[in-house]
């Protein structure tokens, strides 16, 4: 039996599910089947959608719309060849159906042929009366192609069509951010807010743009308006807390973070920020409490373990700091920043071999900072592995050929290795590079201050500079 036209939406779904529980066979209009199938697809119930398609095509074997929904499911399940064959048949029946081109575009997109997908979607645009969904699909294809300007234009068209399409609004701002056009994002959002002054999403995004540009008072106002528009908007409270932190208003920041915890279940990120604020206020016990709450809430949040590491490191409790940096490394062992912290902590504990290994990992993972080479050489010097220290500084010199810091340290290491020839060469290079930094050598390698030839080279360099 067909559903009456005045039955409320969803009634057809209920009747279909009732039919599945019995041996009765109900008749549905093709439009009813479309509603049922869309319902199941939207809720991720693919098996039920397929069952509805099968029954629907039995009752309406000539329905192009139901066959197109069958294609949609085939594409979703990666049965692309079968989907293509069915689309070929449908195109012979209805060559001007934009949905055929949309599904062909989806197939090309699945095969990473995004240029072909774009051409098909543009063809669909020529045929479609309502192009809103097609512009959204085009925007996604342009994102896959890293063409952020064209993606932005497509998503802007979606927002123009439906200003409540927040997904497209987010994508517009994402494109602005990727293009680092923060002023453009601010202009666009302010223009949008002229028409939608109570849109908490737009105020929230505007605040984030101001925050990026370090315009903290403006960011604060934007987040306040987001909260006025929706006083349960957790994201606005959290971002407002970050702004207040930047302004040094830690107590107010804590209040905003605590509000997010009260509105919804607590999050590890909120606990982490509260801990950071308490640490800035000198409330060490409270800071420690919230850091432990952070990792209790989310044991896989490496930043939580890192916060505890830094907390104990500042207190010179290096054994505990080492324990917790290893926790962070267990979660993200590819982070050079964590390995560097591990190296420095091991150095403080005089675990020089472990520190050497950690510095090696640091560099292999892409940290080539000047301080890394200098600190690694210090570790090798303390471990009496002077040749390795010289080798490390030589590598560092390739990245920083004009670094007087590296050159003066190499002088000290060559002298420690009793290689006066290379020590002389390095000293002259260092003095010519930056005479003013001679104090670095004098402070670190006091044991060589008695060497007369060093004083002679320094004296000659002073005369030459005059």
UniProtKB/TrEMBL annotation:
It holds the Pfam family TPR_8. Gene3D superfamilies: Tetratricopeptide repeat domain (1.25.40.10). The keyword Nucleus does not apply. InterPro entries: TPR-like_helical_dom_sf, TPR_rpt. SMART domains: TPR (SM00028). PANTHER family: CELL DIVISION CYCLE 16,23,27, CELL DIVISION CYCLE PROTEIN 27 HOMOLOG. This is Uncharacterized protein. Keywords: TPR repeat. The lineage of its organism: Bacteria, Pseudomonadati, Bacteroidota, Flavobacteriia, Flavobacteriales. TPR repeats lie at residues 98-131, 132-165, 234-267, 302-335.
